[in-house]
Design a protein that fits this description.
This protein is α/β, with parallel strands linked by helices and about 450 residues long. It has 16 helices and twelve strands. An eight-stranded parallel barrel has the order 1-2-3-4-5-7-9-10, surrounded by five helices. A two-stranded parallel ribbon has the order 6-8. Strands 11-12 form a two-stranded antiparallel ribbon. Strand 11 and strand 12 form a beta hairpin. The two termini are about 35 Å apart.
């Protein structure tokens, strides 16, 4: 039995930040407006056979034109913060060279609209949509892309850094590397696992270069990175399964954490790669190991590792999401506590849960969407975050994924993660039951916060 809404709300620190998240290509639309140039996702989604429903992000949620309405929804939810990403090719069409002032003006308007509603803006610089012009020069396999990215980061920080709560360099570089270059599931659609390793290094290098470049701007925004992470659980207690689970954790979580906090890649993962095609310059690891102000963690599922053929599958006691992912809330607290224990003495900064959410096959019934499973999912994951905080993990906020139903990458419009239902034909926004529940939860939290003696009620994250 889950705790009552108000009891659960009281388990979080008074300055805890509640927000929602989106990304540019998934919601903005206006693909050919305002000086925007194509990204790799424009190219990929327009390639036959790449998207399950043969759709694309040309219009998506039309957020480019409807951002005022969408900000109003965030405000009406009573949330502290909004995490969004910038379309690199909207502000710098070629990924290098001239800036597109019309694109910059869009993000200036968005940030101003958020500020007017007392909603803190959290910007992500890269959520998988590389300018196509840079892809034609080799994309993330080209080391020069890391340099271009740092210049882009410097410009965005210079322009907006004092208006933002935070700037994240990358969202889920694991996906960029492994799904974009390893198995070709995502843009740019390359199938070369060895190339994926080099891409992961260039992504981390670009992160380090970007942090350096943004620090020099001396702006108030906190700087960090967002990583998707999971526990890796052996299916059995066999030596083979335990070894495979340890390797899975090393090649996924530690592969990105260790360079940032230890200055090297995990030896367990390095032992299994072809180093002849994995090029690391002598100074690279020092560049990557930049102090950061926050770490964003995205959590959706655990890795359940079986060496048997066919592999054993998890029992999935709480069922699976519409993405086919096991619902495993306790993996979140275990992950957070494990990360804290492993990296707390290595410069681990405060943590934000920057994404967590559930795809449901939502059905519109009149003007309502009854998504009780999503509400249960949210309650259970909030409880696990509270458990990690009680265990001593410094967690400062939670961003639900996502504000809106949207273009869900290679699933097109077939999967719905949003708190708000989007009718893609009319572009109507309709609150789901989960949105109503979340608003009530945040109200309970804010009421408790304001009634706690001696506690600041500011929305300013620490």
């Amino acid at each position: 039995m889950m705790p009552e809404q108000d009891t659960l709300a009281h388990k979080f620190p008074a300055k805890f930040v509640w927000g929602v998240a989106t990304s540019a290509y998934q919601i903005e639309g206006a693909a050919n407006e305002g000086g925007r140039a194509p990204s790799i996702w424009d190219t990929f989604s327009h390639t036959p056979g790449k998207i399950l429903d043969q759709s694309n992000g040309d219009v998506a949620c039309d957020h480019y034109h409807r951002y005022v309405e969408d900000v109003e929804h965030i405000a009406n939810l009573g949330l502290d913060a909004y995490r969004f990403s910038v379309s690199w090719s909207r502000v710098q069409p070629d990924g290098c060279g001239e800036w597109n002032e019309e694109g910059m003006a869009f993000y200036a308007r968005l940030i101003e609209a958020l500020t007017q509603k007392n909603i803190r803006a959290h910007m992500t610089l890269y959520h998988w949509d590389l300018p196509q012009a840079l892809q034609e020069q080799g994309g993330w396999l080209n080391r020069d892309t890391a340099v271009h990215f740092a210049r882009y980061a410097q410009e965005m920080a210079a322009r907006f850094g004092d208006q933002l709560a935070s700037i994240a360099t990358h969202n889920e570089p694991w996906c960029t590397a492994n799904l974009g270059y390893g198995n070709g599931q995502f843009a740019p659609g390359v199938v070369d696992p060895v190339a994926a390793l080099q891409v992961s290094h260039h992504l981390l290098l670009s992160h380090g270069l970007a942090i350096q470049a943004m620090r020099k701007q001396n702006k108030s925004a906190k700087l960090g990175i967002v990583l998707n992470q999971w526990t890796a659980d052996p299916a059995t207690d066999s030596e083979e399964d335990r070894a495979a689970a340890a390797w899975e954790y090393a090649r996924s979580v530690q592969w990105f954490m260790d360079p940032i906090f230890r200055g090297h890649y995990p030896e367990l993962a390095l032992a299994k790669i072809d180093r002849s095609r994995f090029i690391v310059a002598p100074e690279d690891m020092q560049t990557i190991q930049q102090p950061i102000d926050f770490l964003g963690i995205n959590y959706y599922f655990r890795a359940y590792v079986s060496t048997e053929t066919p592999p054993r599958l998890p029992e999935a006691k709480l069922g699976i999401t519409d993405m086919g992912w096991e619902i495993y809330p306790e993996g979140l607290s275990r992950l957070l506590i494990g990360i804290h224990q492993e990296y707390k003495d290595l410069g681990l900064p405060p943590i934000y849960i920057t994404e967590n959410g559930m795809a449901v096959a939502d059905q519109l019934e009149g003007e309502q969407i009854h998504d009780s499973r999503r509400i249960d999912y949210m309650q259970r994951h909030f409880q696990e975050v509270a458990k990690a905080i009680e265990a001593g993990v410094d967690i400062r906020g939670f961003f639900y994924w996502s504000l809106l139903d949207n273009f869900e990458w290679n699933s097109g419009y077939l999967r719905r993660f949003g708190l708000i239902y989007v009718d893609y034909v009319s572009q109507r926004r309709i609150w789901k039951d989960s949105a109503i529940w979340f608003k009530g939860f945040v109200q309970q939290f804010q009421h408790w916060r304001s009634s706690t003696k001696g506690t600041s009620t500011s929305r300013e994250p620490t």
